[in-house]
Structure formats: structure tokens, C-alpha cells
Specification:
Length: 175
């Protein structure tokens, strides 16, 4: 039996929640102009993150058949994992916001483009580092098949989010 998350109702909700976080990043500057920019942007990001995280947790609950003992050990470890990832995801959201602002203002210099790429790759590296760091803990509380399934689910959700971001973030002008 082939299991694929792409055609499930929960995945559809995850995609909608993903779009919410994308919209909060891409439209945050416009919405924030009427209020305190830092407060409004931070609140939008927190709201979008909560939606996205709820969708991720729901998918994991539905797809990974935890025993009561496994669930009791997994969810605290997962919360720590998410907490660590959120620090990097904040950097990613800020980077996207900075790029969109520069792009819309027509001010994407060579220096900015170089820094943008360096920061993007550092974020990708940091995400992988966090995933590897938490792998040890997940392996302590779950059997190998369930750890692998969890990481597969994470990979699918991240790929979907990356696809949605790629659809709304404009490509840099090569000149």
C-alpha cells in the first residue's frame, strides 16, 4: 500500500495554513503600515505560525500510530524541536520580507543579492542541523519506522511550503 500525504484532507488544510503564513510574510508590510509595524508583523507571524503548527501536529497525529507511551514521550520532544526550528523560521520569514521589500522598491543590489543567498543557505543548513540534533531524541522515544515516518512527513510538509513560497516569491532580476 502506497501512502502519500498529498491527497488527504489534512494536507489540504495544511496547504491553506501554509498560504496563511505566506500571506502574512508577503503582505505584512502593507498591513502593518496603519499600525505599529513591529507589533502587527509579529502578531501576524505568530498567528500564521500557530495555524501552520496546528496543521503539522494534526498530520503527525493522524499519520503516526503512536502508543500512549510513545505519544507521552514524543510530544514534549517535538515541542522542543519546533521551538528550535521557530528561531530559524523567524530568520527565514524576515529574510523573505526583506527580499520582497527590496524587490518591490527596485533596490536589489549585488551586495544584497550575495547576502541574500548566503543567509538563505545558512538557514537551510541550520534547519538540517536542528533536524539532526533532535533525531537522537526521537530515536530514544520511538521505534525506527515511526521516526522515519515522522521525518518523511516533515519533508513532505516542508516541500509543500517551499513550493507555495516559490510560487509567490518573484525571481531576482539577473541584471
Amino acid at each position: 500500500m502506497t501512502r502519500y500525504l498529498g491527497d488527504r484532507t489534512t494536507m489540504s488544510r495544511f496547504i491553506l495554513n501554509s498560504l496563511a503564513i505566506i500571506l502574512s510574510v508577503t503582505s505584512g508590510n502593507v498591513l502593518a503600515q496603519s499600525l505599529n509595524p513591529m507589533t502587527q508583523e509579529a502578531q501576524q507571524l505568530a498567528d500564521a505560525r500557530a495555524l501552520l503548527q496546528a496543521g503539522r501536529a494534526e498530520i503527525i497525529r493522524e499519520e503516526v500510530p503512536f502508543t500512549a507511551t510513545e505519544a507521552g514521550a514524543f510530544w514534549p520532544a517535538y515541542e522542543k524541536y519546533v521551538s528550535d526550528l521557530n528561531l530559524v523560521r523567524d530568520r527565514q520569514a524576515k529574510l523573505i520580507s526583506q527580499y520582497l521589500e527590496a524587490y518591490n522598491d527596485g533596490e536589489v543590489s549585488d551586495q544584497f543579492a550575495a547576502k541574500l543567498l548566503d543567509d538563505y543557505l545558512a538557514i537551510k543548513f541550520d534547519i538540517l542541523t536542528i533536524q539532526k540534533k533532535h533525531l537522537r531524541k526521537f530515536r530514544q522515544v520511538l521505534p525506527p519506522h515511526k521516526v522515519t515516518l515522522f521525518y518523511q512527513l516533515e519533508n513532505q510538509m516542508n516541500a509543500e511550503l517551499d513550493l507555495q513560497l516559490a510560487r509567490v516569491i518573484p525571481l531576482i532580476d539577473p541584471e
